[in-house]
TrEMBL record:
Pfam families: WD40. It comes from the Eukaryota. It is found in: Nucleus. Its EC number is 2.3.2.27. InterPro entries: Prp19, WD40/YVTN_repeat-like_dom_sf, WD40_repeat_dom_sf, WD40_rpt. This is Pre-mRNA-processing factor 19. Signal peptide: none annotated. It catalyses: S-ubiquitinyl-[E2 ubiquitin-conjugating enzyme]-L-cysteine + [acceptor protein]-L-lysine = [E2 ubiquitin-conjugating enzyme]-L-cysteine + N(6)-ubiquitinyl-[acceptor protein]-L-lysine. It comes from Hevea brasiliensis (Para rubber tree). Keywords: DNA damage, DNA repair, mRNA processing, mRNA splicing, Nucleus, Spliceosome, Transferase, Ubl conjugation pathway. GO terms for cellular component: cytoplasm; Prp19 complex; U2-type catalytic step 1 spliceosome. Belongs to the WD repeat PRP19 family. Homotetramer. Ubiquitin-protein ligase which is mainly involved pre-mRNA splicing and DNA repair. Required for pre-mRNA splicing as component of the spliceosome.
Length: 87
């Protein structure tokens, strides 16, 4: 049996190369094709402490992902190829 993960929001970037999945944390997958194995390139924590993220949206160049949470905050994280994160 696999690991259970509550999914609240999913979002592809504009190029279709990355998929963001928000739930109890944020997971960003690199999507090669529908039939190929997807590679999790980054896992980001839920910094709100609520354990519940509500939405995820990629920036136009897929260098950042914005994530909303139940504590009514919006956090912006850098993605693979970018150092650090902005909050």
């Amino acid at each position: 049996m696999g690991v259970l993960f509550l999914v609240v929001a999913v979002e592809f970037d504009h190029s279709g190369c990355y998929l963001g999945v928000a739930g109890s944390d944020i997971r960003v997958f690199q999507v090669a094709s529908v039939k190929a194995e997807w590679n999790c390139v980054k896992t980001l924590p839920d910094l709100s402490g609520t354990g519940r993220l509500t939405c995820a949206k990629f920036g136009p160049d897929a260098k950042y992902i914005a994530v909303g949470s139940m504590d009514r905050n919006l956090r912006i994280f850098g993605l693979p190829g970018d150092e650090g994160q902005a909050e």
